[in-house]
Amino acid sequence: MRNITVIGSGTMGNGIAHVFAQYGYKVALCDINEAALQKAIATITANFDRQIKKGTLDESAKVNALNNITTLIDLQQAVKDADLVIEAATENSEIKLNLFKQLSEYCGDDTILATNTSSISITKIASVTKKPENVIGMHFMNPVPVMKLVEVIRGYATTDEVTAKIMELSEKIEKVPVEVNDYPGFVANRILMPMINEAIYSLYEGVAGVYEIDTVMKLGMAHPMGPLQLADFIGLDVCLAILNVLHDGFGNPKYAPCPLLVNMVTAGHKGVKSGEGFYKYQADSKELIVADKFSNK
C-alpha cells in the first residue's frame, strides 16, 4: 500500500495525513471545502516545524513530506488511486454511512476502507458497502503524530488478510497496533468515557470543583491530564456522542451521559474547539483557567 486517501482534514484527519506523508506515503487529503484544506496544511506545516525545533525532523524531510500531500475537494477523484482510504469525518453515524456508500461505489474492489471512528460500529458501517470484508477500524489517538496507539477494530466480516495488512501498515509508521473486536466503544472509549462521565457527575453533584477533580487524578493517579481537561481536549460533543453510542449499545444506565455534559454541548460549550468547556481557552495563552461557570465551585 503506497497511496493513502484521508477523508476529513480536521484534527484527526490532518494528523493522520501528517504521519503517512512523513513516512513516505502519497496522501490525498480530501474535505468539502478549500478553506478547511488550507487550514489543515497550515496545521501540518506548523507541527512539522515543532518537530524540527525538537530535533526529530529536518527541513528536507519536512519539504518531502509536504510534497507527498495532495489536497482535493472531489471525493471520487481523491479515492480513484487509493490502496487505503481512512475516513476521519465527524463522529456522526449518518454522515459516515452515507460516505461509505459513496466510497463503495468509487473505490476499486481491492481498496481497504478504514474508519477512524472512536465508537460507531464497524459492522454497521461495513453493512452499507459492497465488500464489508474490506472494511476495518483504525482508531488513532490525538495528537496523531505523537500518540503511538492504533486500535485496529475488526468488523463482523473483516478478513484476516485485511486485518494483517492494517496491523503491518501501522507498524511501518511506527505505531503500536492493538487488535480489538467490534463492540460499543471498543476498548479505549469503553473504559475512558465512563471515567470522564463520572468526573463530570462529581462536578455536577458538587463533590469538588474542576481544578480539584483534575488535580486528584493527575497527582493521585499519575494521569498526564485530568479527565475534565481531557474531555475539553477531545471535544465535549464527541464525548457526548460516544456516551450515547455506549448507552444505546449496552442499554446500561451507567453509560447515560451526565445532564451537565448535555447542557454544555447544547449551549455550544464544546471545549478547546469552541474556546470554552470546563476551562477557558485563548490562542495566545497556555494558562489553564477554569471557566467562569465553575470558578466558584
Task: Outline the low-pLDDT stretches.
Answer: none
Whole-number total of structural domains: 2
End-to-end Cα distance, whole Å, is 53 Å
Q: How are the strands of the largest sheet arranged?
A: 3-2-1-4-5-6-7-8
State the fourth-level CATH superfamily of the largest domain. NAD(P)-binding Rossmann-like Domain
The helix/strand class is alpha/beta
Q: On the 0-100 scale, what is the average pLDDT?
A: 96
Helix count from the secondary structure assignment: 12
Radius of gyration (CA) equals 19 Å
Percent in strands: 5-15%
Shape: globular
CATH fold-type name of the largest domain = Rossmann fold
Helix content: 40-55%
Architecture of the largest domain, CATH level 2? 3-Layer(aba) Sandwich
- CATH hierarchy, class of the largest domain: Alpha Beta
Number of strands: 10
